[in-house]
Amino acid sequence: SSAGRVFLAYAVAASELSKFLGKGALRAYTAKTPTDRSELTRLVEKIRVDGFSVNEQFLTETVCGVSAPIFDAASKLVGTITLSAPAGRFDIKKDQLVSEVVSCANSISLICGLQ
User: Model pTM?
Assistant: First the structure.
């Protein structure tokens, strides 16, 4: 899920990610689910750079989502905000939806004490 990958990006140290992911097979929920550890690691690294995670039918066919991290005063991850939508609707407004979710997460982070 997009929220799960945000937690991987911000709650699991980069040096611990491979250990956290383990060695067993990664389950495919749809044909688009990343099941290669290298690909998943790249996705997590991209989230750390971009500040959000997009799920394009990775977990459920025809459903997309975007999640952004919420931080506290110590810059610790305390949660995520996530929007899920039917793929057809999500794709049309993807950039705007991502922007709004990130903005909302930033606002909540300020309420939680992030400076």
Answer: 0.91
